[in-house]
Structure to design on (699 residues):
């Protein structure tokens, strides 16, 4: 056992693991944002509100329909995704020809409306949502005979689930034929359409998928964070910083930066907790000064 | 003087006379209407304020009362600029509630400067009636000293003699940690350490693990609202209470317990000034409140807004004027006998005293309804519930 600045190593490993768990949420959320920005050029400010909706849909499924966590994990992203498709068809699709700023303003306004509706209906204190019984309890993790931490099973599941989802998304977009269509459509939509690919449909479905990722993160978050209308607003600013640091539109960048910044934040919570809310923004400033396109971004 | 001018002068004098009898006051509810404290005070406090005006029958007594509300977004600069605008341009006479101690302290200064009455209910720093006390402040409901005294002393005497704090990093958290540290030490306990977290966080596991590592018997949560509920929820997840450490929620409102659910919150010991199910008067008020507010029972902060308005209007009614100095003098000489908060006084430092209660959150099996949340462990009498006048360091108190 060794110590780092007075913190014993087992405690440090525990904190790093926690950072990784928070990083999982950053990764899934920033992944959705990156997919949407990369393929649609829309800065999707509704992302936080839709993450919150994912958690609320899980709560509603349980309390109004008696549908439990595992089904919600599949259903809630679909419901949120369909809601996203409607948003895209009805409103966002009208803005593709305009400057990015209009999309940002529209989605920001939508986020405020969605949050306001939920706040009005459910208040801000939050609603209880229990951890599924299969994942209750936890494991004592130890290296040799040195105990490191008590890892709740559910948190372990969060890391595994988000890593799988992130990898699958990256794989589909970067390594499959469907993904190559998507990437081609962003480079030159007219040409791709000329080859007989339905580009508008593909864009709509991409938005729906990006948004469904937010809904998925919302369901994952419901048992551990308070299910309340402000949960999205609190996290979305950080997630935007993650996307900017990773490089707007870079899929791999969003995933790696999400997990990485979770770790950095976790370390800050140990050594200088007062700064844990700002450390990500400090890094963002530094990265923008040195690499304006972000760590993994292609400079325009 | 002709007859005509004589009659006109008479008519004018009569008009002026009736205008004097009619006092009009404007009450501003300034709190967090949408953020993490909005269920503690928020729009519910405006509902409570309007109920107070109706119940007082202000219109029949010749007092015209207008109630307005605004959202300070938990930002002291926003809060103080709204306060300035209300006092300077909108004719607001009294600002009430003001959750979030940092904002309350800012509005306290503006009110002192403008010589306007400030009646905080949701804001809890004991500095409001300590070093920063003002001759125009009437601090209702609770403060950090009273919470520390109630929960801190009780937990320490039950054997929880070593503490670690998880503290919200702003004025309120700092005051609560300081006051609880004093209460714990006075009762013979010791404080092993603390960690400060940013306001409105969502993940507390890192801080809780640090608290766990300290091996303290009690983990004191010196925060409020969703920060507290998130921390309690995650403490259960990480098996901290099963590990033998107790959690002390230093400021927990009934809305927080409702949000956690009894399954998670059971056994939590907390100090509050008001609970809806205490007496016929509190039940009557709370049920009328719930009927106007989506079936939600009032929190102590919301009830405090109601009672402080009743207290203020009584003084205005007795004097038939609203001059801040005269109303404050009248308030100080009027003993409080409030149907919701009981008997007490307004002290020279601005502190309103009344009994405080030590509650324990019921087990799910003990609860008879969705709002049946607490059982009473102890009543702390009014003269013991708040910091002694001599110890606050308020310059207004003559030593």
């Amino acid at each position: 056992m060794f110590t780092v600045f007075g913190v014993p190593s087992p405690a440090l490993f525990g904190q790093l693991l926690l950072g990784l768990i928070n990083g999982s949420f950053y990764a899934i959320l920033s992944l959705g944002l990156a997919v949407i920005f990369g393929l649609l050029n829309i800065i999707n400010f509704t992302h936080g509100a839709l993450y919150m909706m994912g958690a609320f849909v899980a709560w509603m499924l349980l309390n109004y329909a008696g549908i439990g966590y595992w089904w919600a994990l599949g259903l809630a992203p679909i419901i949120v995704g369909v809601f996203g498709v409607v948003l895209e068809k009805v409103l966002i699709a009208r803005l593709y020809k305009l400057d990015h700023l209009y999309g940002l303003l529209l989605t920001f306004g939508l986020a405020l409306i969605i949050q306001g509706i939920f706040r009005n209906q459910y208040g801000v204190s939050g609603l209880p949502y229990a951890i599924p019984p299969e994942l209750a309890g936890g494991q004592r993790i130890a290296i040799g005979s040195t105990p490191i931490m008590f890892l709740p099973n559910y948190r372990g599941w969060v890391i595994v689930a988000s890593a799988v989802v992130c990898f699958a998304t990256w794989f589909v977009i970067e390594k499959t034929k469907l993904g190559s269509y998507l990437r081609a459509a962003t480079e030159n939509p007219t040409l791709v359409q000329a080859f007989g690919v339905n580009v508008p449909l593909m864009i709509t479905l991409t938005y729906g998928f990006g948004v469904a990722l937010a809904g998925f993160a919302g369901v994952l978050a419901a048992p551990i964070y308070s299910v309340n209308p402000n949960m999205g607003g609190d996290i979305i600013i950080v997630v935007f910083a993650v996307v900017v640091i990773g490089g707007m539109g870079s899929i791999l960048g969003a995933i790696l930066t999400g997990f990485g910044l979770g770790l950095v934040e976790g370390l800050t919570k140990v050594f200088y907790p007062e700064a844990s809310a700002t450390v990500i923004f400090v890094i963002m400033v530094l990265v923008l000064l040195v690499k304006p396109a972000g760590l993994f971004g292609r400079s325009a | 003087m002709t007859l005509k001018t004589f009659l006109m002068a008479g008519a004018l004098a009569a008009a002026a006379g009736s205008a004097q009898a009619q006092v009009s006051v404007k009450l501003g509810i300034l709190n967090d209407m949408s953020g993490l404290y909005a269920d503690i005070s928020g729009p519910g406090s405006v509902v409570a304020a309007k109920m107070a005006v109706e119940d007082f029958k202000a219109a029949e007594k010749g007092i015209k009362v207008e109630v307005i509300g605004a959202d300070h977004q938990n930002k002291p600069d926003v809060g103080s600029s709204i306060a300035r605008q209300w006092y300077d341009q909108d004719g607001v006479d009294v600002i009430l509630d003001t959750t979030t101690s940092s904002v309350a302290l800012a509005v306290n200064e503006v009110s002192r400067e403008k010589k306007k009455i400030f009646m905080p209910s949701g804001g809890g720093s004991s500095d409001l009636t300590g070093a920063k006390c003002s001759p125009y402040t009437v601090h209702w409901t609770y403060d950090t000293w009273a919470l520390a005294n109630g929960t801190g002393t009780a937990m320490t005497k039950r054997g929880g003699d070593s503490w670690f704090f998880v503290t919200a990093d702003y004025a309120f958290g700092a005051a609560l940690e300081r006051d609880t540290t004093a209460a714990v030490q006075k009762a013979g306990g010791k404080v092993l350490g603390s960690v400060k977290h940013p306001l409105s966080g969502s993940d507390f596991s890192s801080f809780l693990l640090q608290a766990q590592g300290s091996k303290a018997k009690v983990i004191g949560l010196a925060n409020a609202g969703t920060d507290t509920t998130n921390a309690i929820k995650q403490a259960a997840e990480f098996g901290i209470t099963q590990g033998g450490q107790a959690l002390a929620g230093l400021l927990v409102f009934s809305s927080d317990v409702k949000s956690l659910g009894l399954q998670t919150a059971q056994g939590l010991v907390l100090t509050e000034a008001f609970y809806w199910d205490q007496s016929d008067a509190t039940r009557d008020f709370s049920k009328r409140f719930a009927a106007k507010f989506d079936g939600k029972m009032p929190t102590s902060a919301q009830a405090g807004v109601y009672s402080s308005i009743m207290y203020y209007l009584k003084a205005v009614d007795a004097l038939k004027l609203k001059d801040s100095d005269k109303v404050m003098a009248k308030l100080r000489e009027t003993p409080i006998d409030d149907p919701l908060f009981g008997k007490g006084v307004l002290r020279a430092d601005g502190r309103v005293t009344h009994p405080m209660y030590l509650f324990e959150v019921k087990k799910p099996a003990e609860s008879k309804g969705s709002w049946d949340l607490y059982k009473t462990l102890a009543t702390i009498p009014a003269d013991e519930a708040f910091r002694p006048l001599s110890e606050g360091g308020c310059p207004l108190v003559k030593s």
